[in-house]
Design brief:
The protein is built from eight helices and nine strands. By secondary structure, the protein is α/β, with parallel strands linked by helices. It has two domains: about 150 residues, Rossmann fold (3-Layer(aba) Sandwich), CATH 3.40.50.300; about 70 residues, no CATH class. It has a six-stranded mixed beta sheet, with helices on both faces. The chain has a three-stranded antiparallel beta sheet with strand order 2-1-4, with helices on one face. The longest helix has 16 residues. The protein binds adenosine-5'-triphosphate. Adenosine-5'-triphosphate binds next to α1. It comes from Lysinibacillus parviboronicapiens. One of its GO terms (molecular function) is ATP binding.
Length: about 220
């Protein structure tokens, strides 16, 4: 077990956010944080990454680990090239030039590395965001909506990258609206709705217990849709 959250809440003035969430993150596994708009996914990720402190409840880390993080959006300085962005962020993480080249290749931006970010499409900026999160050796990789803006080819590549990180022994936590994507690669799921946990645990076990073959159908049933 990497961490255990107990009755974790972060409720904003509008009474929205995350309410009484108890769950665990298991080491070396892929956890998909799923749910619709406003379900509380980013709020939960801000608590995990320490960007916000919980209003109540506890987050107990069994082993404190360095986190690599892909936020849902980064406003990269538009006058910098992809290489310059990666160099800048790599220097903060003391990552050498070999690895900088490797991450740019992994996300398919090596050939356009000298282009300024302002000339990048949304998908290219998202891949640069993914590249910066892959720098370094932090054993916990957290990705907020990593499929946003990616075409089907890059969604398939993202899947491979997440599985490669797991194969290296990393724990991966990612948020998504795409239940089919979550289902394809996640070992564990945490499904949120209106700030509360709808389902959590081992994905295969949950589907078997509920006698459902797809997460989407189970989600629709739980919401009475
Ligand atoms: N800083 C804030 N101030 C007030 N309300 C907030 C704040 N951050 C989030 N919320 C509210 O908390 C709820 C959960 O938001 P959150 O961004 O965590 O959801 P999400 O599941 O990531 O949604 P989406 O898929 O749309 O990105 C929403 O109703 C949102 O309006």
């Amino acid at each position: 077990m990497l961490l255990v959250a107990s009755n974790l809440s972060n409720v904003y003035a509008n009474n929205r956010g995350l309410k009484n969430a108890s769950f665990s993150v298991r080491s070396g596994r892929i956890l998909a944080l799923a749910g619709g708009n406003g379900a509380g996914k980013s709020t939960l990720l801000r608590l995990l990454t320490g960007q916000e402190k919980p209003l109540s409840g506890e987050l107990i880390w069994q082993e404190r680990q360095a986190i690599r993080f892909m936020p849902d959006d980064i406003d990269f300085p538009s006058m910098l090239t992809a290489t310059e962005v990666i160099q800048l962020l790599a220097s903060l993480k003391s990552v050498g030039s070999n690895e900088q080249e490797k991450v740019l290749k992994r996300v398919g931006l090596w050939d356009v590395k000298k282009q300024k970010v302002q000339q990048f499409s949304k998908g290219m900026r998202q891949r640069l965001n993914l590249a910066q999160s892959l720098l370094g050796n932090g054993p916990l990789l957290i990705l907020d909506e990593p499929t946003n803006g990616l075409d089907p080819y890059w969604i398939a590549e993202l899947k491979k990258i997440i599985l490669q990180e797991k194969a290296k022994g990393c724990t991966v936590v990612f948020s998504t609206h795409l239940l089919a994507f979550a289902e394809e690669i996640a070992d564990d799921i945490l499904v949120l709705h209106d700030g509360e946990i709808l389902m959590s645990g081992d994905l295969k076990e949950i589907l078997a217990e509920e006698n459902y073959t797809t997460l989407e159908n189970l989600w629709l049933k739980k919401l009475n849709l």
